[in-house]
Write a structure and sequence with these properties.
Blueprint lengths: L2 H7 L6 H10 L8 H17 L4 H10 L14 H7 L1
Length: 86
């Protein structure tokens, strides 16, 4: 199975054009195994789904292996957040 097929099969990309763009942006050719490629691609997809960042930024974050930011559902009601704002 090719990298393009893997990205589509894992629903990281919806078509070959998008999959090729993701593979190039993430520099998947640098990865040694398919597991590494998929892990990087999944991290990228998580960044895209969790943020409104441009793909370029998400590529950089995924390549660096950074953690995806998680927004709390309760940020607007937490007292600790209110104290920081004051």
């Amino acid at each position: 199975m090719t990298v393009i097929e893997m990205l589509i099969n894992d629903k990281i990309a919806s078509n070959p054009f998008q999959a090729a763009h993701i593979a190039n942006g993430l520099k998947l050719g640098e990865c040694k195994t398919d597991e590494e490629r998929l892990a990087r691609a999944r991290l990228y997809r998580d960044f895209r789904n969790a943020t409104k960042w441009l793909p370029r930024v998400c590529y950089e974050k995924a390549i660096a292996g950074e953690a995806v930011p998680v927004k709390s559902l309760f940020d607007d009601v937490l007292h600790s957040k209110k104290e920081e704002a004051e």
